[in-house]
Amino acid sequence: MKKAMFMVLVAILFATVPMKAQWVVSDPTNLAQGIVNTAQEIVQTSATAANTLDSFKEVQKVYQQGKEYYDALKAVNNLVKDARKVQLTVLMVGDISEIYVVNFGKMMNDPNFNAQELNAIGFGYSKLLNESAELLKELKQIITASSLSLNDKERMDIIDKVYSDVKKYHSLVRYYTNKNISVSLIRAKKANDTKRVLELYGKPNEKYW
C-alpha cells in the first residue's frame, strides 16, 4: 500500500503541464513540472543572448511567470516521507532560480561589475541552474514503465542521490552568490562606498549572504 501511494504521489509531482501557464496554479498535480519547465526556460532564455539588461528582463519575466508553481509547491505539506524528499528536491531547483534572478538583478545595478564580468556571472548562474534541473530527470526514472520493477530500497537510493546532488548545487549557488557580492564589497571599500553595497544586497546576516 505504501509503495502504491508513493508512486502515485511522485507521479503527481511530475505530471506534465504546459510550458507557459497563464493562470494561478492551485492543482498540485502540475507544480513540480512547472518548476522544472521554468528552470529550463530560464536557462534557454539566458543562452539566447548576452546577459545584457534587456535579455535579463526576459529571464525575470520567465521567473515571475513560473514563481506561482514554486510558491504553491512550498505550501504542500500532506505528503508521505518519501514523496516529501522528492518535493524538497524540486523546491531546491526553484530556490536556485530565485537566487539567480534576485541577486543577478541586483548585480546588474552594481557599478562595481563591468559588462564582461556580468556576462560571466550570468553564464555561471545559468550553468549551475541547468545542471540542477538536469538532475531531476533521474527522479523521473522511478515512475517510468521500465523502472516499475525497482524495489523500495532502489527507489530510495535514486531519490537520496539526486536529493544530495541538488543540495550540493544549491549550496554552491549560494556560495557563488556570496563570493561575487564579496568582490563588489571589496571594491566598494576601496572606493569608500560600502554603505551603498550593503543597502543593495543586504547586511551579511541576511539571506544568501
Description of the structure:
With about 210 residues, the chain is mainly alpha-helical. The protein has one domain. The chain contains seven helices and no strands. It has helices spanning about 1-15, 30-45, 55-75, 80-105, 115-140, 150-190, 195-200. The model is unreliable at about 15-30 (pLDDT under 50).
Furnish the topology, listing elements before pairings:
Layout: H1 2-13, H2 31-47, H3 53-74, H4 81-107, H5 115-140, H6 152-190, H7 194-201
Helical content (DSSP H or I, runs of 4+): over 70%
How many helices in DSSP terms? 7
Q: Total strand count, please?
A: 0
Low-confidence stretches: 16-29
> What string, H for helix and E for strand, traces the elements in order?
HHHHHHH
Give the C-alpha Rg. Answer: 19 Å
Strand content: under 5%
* Intertermini distance: 44 Å
What is the number of independent domains? 1
The whole-number mean of residue pLDDT values reads: 81
Overall SS class: mainly alpha
Largest sheet: none
Outline: elongated
Which oligomeric state applies? single chain
